[in-house]
Amino acid sequence: MFILVTGASGQLGKSIESLVKKDNINHSFVFVTREQLDLSSLSNIHSYFKTHKFDLIINCAAYTAVDKAEHDREKANMINHLAVKQVAEIAKSNNIKLIHISTDFVFDGLKHQTYSESDTTSPINIYGKTKLAGENAILSIMKFDAIIIRTSWLYSEYGNNFVATILKLAQKNNNLNIVSDQIGTPTYAGDLGRVILNIIKNDKFNELERVSEIYHYSNAGCCSWYDFAKEIVNISGAKCIINPINTEDYPTAAKRPEYALLSKKKISKEFNLKINSWQDSLKYCMKNLSTVSLLNKE
Ligand SMILES: NC(=O)c1ccc[n+]([C@@H]2O[C@H](COP(=O)([O-])OP(=O)(O)OC[C@H]3O[C@@H](n4cnc5c(N)ncnc54)[C@H](OP(=O)(O)O)[C@@H]3O)[C@@H](O)[C@H]2O)c1
Questions:
Q1: What is the pLDDT of residues 123-145, one digit of tens each?
Q2: E strands, the chain, where?
Q3: What angle do CA 72, 76, 56 make, to 5 degrees?
Q4: Which of 150, 154, 256 to mutate to test the pocket of ligand 1 (most atoms within 8 A of CB)?
Q5: Mutate which of 35, 60, 80, 138 to test ligand 1's pocket (most atoms within 8 Å of Cβ)?
Q6: CA 222 to CA 97: how far, in whole Å?
Q7: For residue 60, which of 13, 28, 174, 283 is within the disulfide window of CB 3.0 to 4.6 Å?
Q8: φ, ψ dihedrals at 282, nearest 5°
């Protein structure tokens, strides 16, 4: 297969690229950054796919600045919804399969139980609304051959994310106040990348006219941001003390769901996956991070 991966400079794009380099995968991958394929222009998208042909698109690009999106609604909607709609139209008319990544933020977090794929969506911020509009566009255009994977609290060895932020802050501060009343599950982008590559290899994915589906994926277990920060600091050996605070003591432009746990039953059963605990994956990522920083010092 000829496979296009968008968002190549983002966390998930880079994680997939690193896995593809390590593995002997029998497909040709093209990784594109914003410079090669700018999703903020429909005419750009149109002309790109006129000259480039693929069998599968893995769409890792997105407008992911959750708070900024509250004041930048049009751009967030363009990248998370209108561009996705156009990519789906192109995929449908050219028999291209699509794997698209979405978010737990399509839920309001008020259920206080694990969310399954069929639960009612009700996003409480602009980012979640635009991501949901992208999902709905795919499902209405592509009755077949699309997979949407909703994930949560993504972090990796690359770019800005919660792990990198806490590590930086813990080096400079004796105390950090972290929200303890929002519950979710961290997802290591390397694990999600591996899941995507396993799905591609699976015969079920390659069936002709496979009905389009939504799946949920995160690491196993659950925690608050406070628990997550404490674990990061423990693993790093930093001396910083983490204090629990409430959401109301840390105001943000965008509201976050209180309790957004994703059930992984469907994806693990269908693709026969073993899902790592969030603590094990965090340790693995942080070990890689320290190797990366040691290498950079040499
Ligand atoms: N991060 C999370 O906590 C989280 C949680 C749940 C779901 N997700 C979803 O998971 C997926 C991957 O997220 P991530 O953490 O890897 O995101 P990320 O690190 O923010 O990467 C997003 C990528 O999209 C690219 N992009 C943004 N605007 C673009 C445009 N106009 N044209 C082309 N590319 C553009 C960015 O390019 P630049 O580098 O040039 O900006 C970047 O490479 C996304 O669909 C996201 O919505 C993320």
A1: 999 999 999 999 999 999 999 99
A2: 2-6, 28-32, 56-59, 97-103, 146-151, 154-155, 175-179, 183-184, 187-188, 213-216, 223-224, 241-245
A3: 165
A4: 154
A5: 60
A6: 32
A7: 13
A8: -65, -45
pLDDT beneath 50, residues of the chain: 298
Cβ atoms of residues 179 and 224 within 8 Å: yes
pLDDT at 296: 52
Quickly tell me which residue has 């599968």 as its tokens.
56
Helix (H) or strand (E) holding 44: helix 42-51
Q: How far is the CA of 174 from the centre of ligand 1 (A)?
A: 32
Q: Are 87 and 98 in contact (CB under 8 A)?
A: yes
Closest atom of ligand 1 to 158 CA is: 19
Q: If you take atom 2 of ligand 1, which residue's CA is the nearest one?
A: 154
Express each pLDDT in 271-289 by its tens digit: 999 999 999 999 999 999 8
Kindly compute the dihedral angle of the four CA atoms of residues 263, 265, 268, 270, in this order, to the nearest 10 degrees.
-130
Burial 200-221 (b: 16+ CB within 10 A, else e): beeeebeeeeeebebbbbbbbb
Separation of alpha carbons 37 and 1, rounded Å: 20
Closest-lying ligand 1 atom to the alpha carbon of residue 6: 34
